[in-house]
Amino acid sequence: MVKELAPDVVLRARRGDQYAFIQLFHRFERPLRSFLYGMTGCRESTDDLVQETFSRAFQDLSNLRDESKFSTWIFGIARNAALESSRRQSLLRRFKRVELENQDVQALCNPDSNPESDAIKSELHQAIGRGFSLLDEDSRTVLSLRVFAEKKYSEISEITGWSLSKVKVEIYRARLKMREIIAPHLQH
User: Fold this and answer.
1) How many Å separate Cα 73 from the centre of its chain?
2) Would you say 159 and 145 are in contact if contact means Cβ atoms under 8 Å apart?
């Protein structure tokens, strides 16, 4: 369930109320983490980018003109931080396999685990990770915003600065590419 904020929390944070900023952190930390993990596929990078996002937001909060757009604004900061980080990394790092939950540990914790279904799940998770890593930055951005951050098309348009039609096209293309990569793993 999404935590609702008092209507004036952004305004209070802009005025320097640290408790209000902490409320913003608690409200947006998890959705930003999901979005950034979708962008990077790496837990360590995600942690760094979440910190970078909130650090930038805290420093620039006085520049936010419309408190009602805080969500769009902070996701835009996160997107920019992720893209800048990606540009700093080598191409090999960019296409690194997405790290996923350790399936062996999960299987040990689950008494109903079935080795065959666990192997299929592991293969599917790897295919999804591989698919995300093969998407270009634009496709990975919009698909992460849509799937992990559960943003509406209009919100994605505001965050990226793209037209609504470009957002829809990018999401459509990204989904097609993901289906193409995952399809062979679904025919078991």
Assistant:
1) 15
2) yes
Q: Could you say which DSSP state residue 161 is in?
A: T
Q: Which amino acid is at 99?
A: E
Say how far apart CA 155 and CA 153 lie, in whole Å: 5
**Structure tokens, 48:** 């760094």
For the chain, list the domains and their CATH numbers.
Answer: 1-96 (1.10.1740.10), 100-188 (1.10.10.10)
Please check the confidence at residue 92 and state whether its pLDDT lies above 50: no
Q: DSSP secondary-structure letter at 151?
A: -
Lookup: tokens for 169? 């096209």
Angle between helices 43-60 and 70-88 (to 10 degrees): 130
For tokens 């992460």, the residue is 144
Residues 142/176, Cβ–Cβ less than 8 Å: no
Model pLDDT for residues 133-159, shown as the tens digit of each residue: 788 888 888 888 888 888 899 989 988
